[in-house]
Protein: Large ribosomal subunit protein uL22
Amino acid sequence: MEVRAMVREVRVSPQKARMVIDVIRGKPLRDALAVLQVLPQKTAPIALKLLRSAAANAEHNYDLDPDRLYVKRIYVDEGPRYKRWQPHARGRVGRKWRRTSHITVILDELPEKGAPRG
Structure:
């Protein structure tokens, strides 16, 4: 049973968010939570909160055991860009893009050992 959670329009660029997200992809839930607690990047607490939310959804809505969950898929999509202006010399203006991200995580149960694949 797949469980999905999503956070939208996070004020961090997708490129920087993917650096953190790539670290936890495919890991068991406990390991992913432990890794995110020690990472210094701005995205780490956001991803940590998202993983905890997905685990709570799995436990509360689907009666899944959190100890048997792993990060099946996690990805970052680009959100809307905020356009800002920065003054330059001679009265000119430069455009700055404030990038945002959408982060999606899909958790699934670990397959049992000896269970047939299908």
In short: The chain has one domain: 3-109. The chain is about 35% helix and 35% strand.
